[in-house]
Structures are given as structure tokens and as C-alpha cells.
Specification:
With 114 residues, the protein is mainly beta. The protein contains no helices and 8 strands. The chain has one domain. The relative contact order is 0.28. The strands form 3 sheets. It has a 3-stranded antiparallel sheet with strand order 3-1-7, with no helix packed on it. Strand 4 and strand 5 form a beta hairpin.
């Protein structure tokens, strides 16, 4: 399997933070990537283990007119990785639930998240 990364020498894979229920609710923690095309994805061999630590921050986007952050900051989310079965920029995503984390809860002060 191959994990996408933003630049050929980026130390971590490209990731997203999405609502765990699969809704279109926008997560305030979903990073905005500005990447280059390349063919140097991380290769994960069968039986291998990879451990990454992600510094998740948010909100990552703002409505300048309303002076408000975009996306929800509290709730149940999942971390997603782009996993492909072949190398190369633009390779199709691997089938199934590869690249989707277990659900996790984010609570902020004053939130009523589960």
C-alpha cells in the first residue's frame, strides 16, 4: 500500500479530519493542503507497521465577512489518509475502509459534544 504525502520529502502522510457520521458537516480541523505532484509516496509493505503523530489544529478556515470560523469544532470525528494500492500521483484510492481511523471525540470548553 502507498500513502500520499504533500511533498516528496514530507515526513507525514496527507490526512483529513471528517465528521464520523459521514455527513457533509465540515470539520474545522480538516487541513488545507497545497501540495505538489510527485511519485514519492510512502510505501507500507505487507505486515509492516507505521506510526505517525499528527498535530491537529483548527479552525483552519474563516469567513472574513462574518468574522467566524468555518466548520464544527466539537463532535465525533475520524482521521482519514489517502491510501492507494499502486504508487504514483493520481493513483486510485484503495478499496474498503483502509485509511479511516476509529471515531474520536473532540470537546471544547462550553461544547456539548458526546
Amino acid at each position: 500500500m502507498f500513502l500520499a504525502r504533500c511533498f516528496p520529502n514530507s515526513p507525514e502522510p496527507i490526512y483529513g479530519i471528517v465528521a464520523a457520521d459521514g455527513s457533509a458537516t465540515e470539520s474545522a480541523y480538516d487541513p488545507i493542503w497545497a501540495c505538489v505532484g510527485h511519485n514519492n509516496q510512502f510505501q507500507i509493505l505487507p505486515g509492516a507497521v507505521r506510526v505517525d503523530t499528527f498535530l491537529v489544529r483548527g479552525p483552519n478556515a474563516f469567513d472574513e465577512i462574518k468574522q467566524q470560523a468555518l466548520g464544527v469544532t466539537a463532535g465525533v470525528f475520524r482521521l482519514t489518509l489517502f491510501v492507494a494500492s499502486v504508487p504514483g500521483d493520481g493513483a486510485p484510492a484503495a478499496p474498503g475502509s483502509l485509511g479511516i481511523s476509529n471515531a474520536f471525540v473532540v470537546r471544547t470548553s462550553g461544547s456539548s459534544a458526546p
